[in-house]
From TrEMBL:
<dbReference type="InterPro" id="IPR000594">
    <property type="entry name" value="ThiF_NAD_FAD-bd"/>
</dbReference>
<dbReference type="InterPro" id="IPR035985">
    <property type="entry name" value="Ubiquitin-activating_enz"/>
</dbReference>
<dbReference type="GO" id="GO:0008641">
    <property type="term" value="F:ubiquitin-like modifier activating enzyme activity"/>
</dbReference>
<feature type="domain" description="THIF-type NAD/FAD binding fold">
    <location>
        <begin position="11"/>
        <end position="241"/>
    </location>
</feature>
<dbReference type="Pfam" id="PF00899">
    <property type="entry name" value="ThiF"/>
</dbReference>
<comment type="similarity">
    <text>Belongs to the HesA/MoeB/ThiF family.</text>
</comment>
<dbReference type="GO" id="GO:0005829">
    <property type="term" value="C:cytosol"/>
</dbReference>
<dbReference type="GO" id="GO:0016616">
    <property type="term" value="F:oxidoreductase activity, acting on the CH-OH group of donors, NAD or NADP as acceptor"/>
</dbReference>
<dbReference type="GO" id="GO:0016779">
    <property type="term" value="F:nucleotidyltransferase activity"/>
</dbReference>
<dbReference type="InterPro" id="IPR045886">
    <property type="entry name" value="ThiF/MoeB/HesA"/>
</dbReference>
<protein>
    <submittedName>
        <fullName>HesA/MoeB/ThiF family protein</fullName>
    </submittedName>
</protein>
<dbReference type="GO" id="GO:0004792">
    <property type="term" value="F:thiosulfate-cyanide sulfurtransferase activity"/>
</dbReference>
<dbReference type="GO" id="GO:0008146">
    <property type="term" value="F:sulfotransferase activity"/>
</dbReference>
<dbReference type="InterPro" id="IPR029752">
    <property type="entry name" value="D-isomer_DH_CS1"/>
</dbReference>
């Protein structure tokens, strides 16, 4: 189906891009994505993708809105304090962008992760803890879903695209026994720094949905103090229990490939 006259006007600046066009806009309206985490990253990512015309967005978060969230989680205000983040965000975006379908659910758990993510074509991890990140990564590998993981704490951010069957997964970068060395609650963060990483995550998502070439296995690190980026190419880790099944490798220390960036075992969270 084509676009309505109203949608053609609404999305006209995107449609002008040769990488998008009318067919690409229709493709976005037919897309189904899941966003895990509705904090600083998830709020901005969800709003940008809903505004771009992504037709089906599923939001997952078990937390409620707190006063300390408001400086960087801009979708919420004082009236939302104590309410579920995913439910509030879904309601507000549905009102602001009525053309799409938004659903809200609680936290991703070991019991519901596969059923929650199944049926989508892309997952964006905006969560704030290693347990959820590893859970989502493993599920995406099982379900053959591309995963875009972003995080930030202090002035340091990171962005990683994981494509099943191509390159490393999130666990190659951060093994399951990794200990978190910092998060926003302990190290602090500025709202604009969160917005930078969220915008990059949303931009990469739109590129994937539009069928553009996106390099997987690249770890992009952002330094908010120097306003600089570092681009590292990662390799699958033969000791990774997620990738070992796909690669057919055994967990032998002599064959281990140390991914770039793995030496910094920090979970940057929002």
């Amino acid at each position: 189906m084509g676009l309505s006259d109203r949608d053609f006007i609404r999305y006209s600046r995107q449609i002008l891009l040769p990488e998008c066009g009318e067919a690409g806009q229709v493709r976005l309206e037919q897309s189904r994505i899941a966003i895990v985490g509705c904090g600083g990253l998830g709020c901005s990512v969800a709003q940008q993708l809903a505004a771009a015309g992504v037709g089906h967005i599923s939001l997952f978060d078990g937390d409620t809105v707190e006063l300390s969230n408001l400086p960087r989680q801009l979708a919420y205000d004082d009236r939302d304090l104590g309410q579920g983040k995913a439910q509030v965000l879904a309601a507000k975006l549905a009102h602001q962008y009525p053309g799409g379908t938004l659903s809200a659910a609680g936290a991703i758990t070991a019991e519901n992760v596969d059923s929650a993510l199944a049926g989508n074509e892309l997952v964006l991890d905006c969560s704030d803890n290693f347990a959820t990140r590893h859970r989502v990564n493993a599920s995406c590998q099982r379900l053959n879903l591309p995963l875009i993981s972003a995080a930030i704490s202090g002035f340091e951010g990171q962005l990683l695209l994981v494509t099943p069957g191509e390159g490393p997964c999130y666990q190659c970068l951060y093994p399951e026994d990794t200990q978190s060395a910092g998060n926003c609650a302990a190290q602090g963060v500025l709202g604009p720094a969160v917005a930078v990483m969220a915008s990059m995550q949303a931009l990469l998502a739109l590129q994937l949905l539009l069928g553009m070439d996106c390099n997987t296995g690249r770890l992009l690190r952002f330094n908010g103090l120097s306003l600089s980026w570092h681009d590292a190419r990662l390799e699958p880790d033969p000791q990774c229990t997620i990738c070992a099944l796909r690669l057919g490798t055994s967990k032998t220390p002599d064959s281990q490939v140390i991914p770039q960036g793995r030496k910094n075992h920090v979970d940057h969270s929002v």
